[in-house]
Amino acid sequence: MNENELLLFKEYVGDWIKKENEIKEYQNKIKVLQDAKKKLLSPKIIDFMNKNKIEELNTDSSGKISLSKTKTRSGITKKKIKEKLYEELDPVKAEKIFKELYDSRTTTETTILKRT
């Protein structure tokens, strides 16, 4: 490797680091914007749309904003529960209890905004 190649390599590394830092700055700015959108604006828009029974909103230039419901279950890992049940019980009973636990998890429904 000659000196020119080494200098060029160092330049590439320096540029890469600059780009990486720039990306991190933009990601931080994006996070601030997303937090403001999610925590400040979305709840107000969702509330207004729900109160006025508006499911879809046509915007002049940005397409549609529609209410969309998502369902999420409480966090649980099959593997962990199975391990613990099998440690304490016989396999048949453990499997029965595991199935009952897993099938009886609570489901929550959340309203979100979706831009299309």
Low-confidence stretches: none
- Supply the number of structural domains: 2
pLDDT averaged residue by residue: 88
Within the largest sheet, what's the order of strands?
Answer: 1-2-3
Radius of gyration over C-alpha positions, nearest whole angstrom: 26 Å
Instruction: Please provide the count of β strands.
Output: 3
Global shape: flat
Give the N-terminus to C-terminus distance in angstroms: 53 Å
In sequence order, what are the helices and strands, one letter per element? HEEHHE
Give a quick account of the main beta sheet: strands, pairing sense, barrel closure.
Answer: 3 strands, antiparallel
User: Beta fraction of the residues?
Assistant: 15-25%
- Which structural class fits the helix and strand makeup? alpha+beta
Helix percentage range: 55-70%
Individual helix count: 3
